Amino acid sequence: SFDNFDTSDVTTMSSMFYSSSKLTSLDLSGFDTSKVIYMNGMFSSCNSLKSLDLSGFDTSAVGTDINHAGSMSRMFYGCSSLIDLNLSNWLYEFEKPRLGAKVRFVGVRWL
Prior knowledge:
The chain contains no helices and three strands. It is globular, with a radius of gyration of 13 Å. The chain has strands at residues 25-27, 51-53, 84-86. It is mostly loops. It has a three-stranded parallel sheet, with no helix packed on it. The chain is 0% helix and 8% strand.
């Protein structure tokens, strides 16, 4: 359980769960991501992950570092079993031009 994780000062979550092949369900809705700039590859190659709740993510800081493009690239790359993805309440302005504004769903078959 991640209920007691203090992520309030975290700026990088890149590859945090990369290739965690035993994960099948994950609820990170309680994570404080208000300072996170990098989420690239965060769940990349989590090929057994079926359910993922990111509904509480504040992604307003993602992609604000002009020195790093692709801040959300390959975030869900290779998540071939993912069928339930909750991104409700995301605070990400996709219409606003930013570096790394593309969230990649390559290899996600059922969404």
